[in-house]
Predict the 3D structure of the following.
Amino acid sequence: MRRKIFLNSVAIVFAGAMSFASMNVVSAADDEAAIKELQAQYVASWLARDADAYLSLWDENAIQMPNGAPARGMDILKAGVPKMFSAVEAKSFHFNPEDLVVTGDWAFARGTFDLDQVVQGKDMHVEGKSLGVYKRQADGSWKIYWSMTNSNTP
């Protein structure tokens, strides 16, 4: 009798553990794919000059650290990105991811980029490097938390 109770208890615990393990399990490959999709949306929103789509990719506490300018939070991004997108036309934008590390609710990505755009009527080519920190959101999605870029182009 004890053995039957013990085996039933083990079966219940095992079934519960298996059920728990199948809930909200996201593999590292799924996380990497989601972050690469976020990076693709970043480029697409920039090329489309879609400020709302671009800003939706950022965590509410995000910090952007652009080349040659002070760090800025979401309040400044929300005010500045629509103006920038209306004034600057991106002709092409390529992001080349080189490294991506996911650890828990944080991810770190390094890459290079090249961008052709028209600024104040003049063609401009920029090549550079980027370092991004991504944060998993409460709903499981990923958003940009910190972003730093610097230019190779003088």
User: Anything to note?
Assistant: Residues 40 and 103 are 21 Å apart (CA to CA). The longest helix spans residues 2-22.
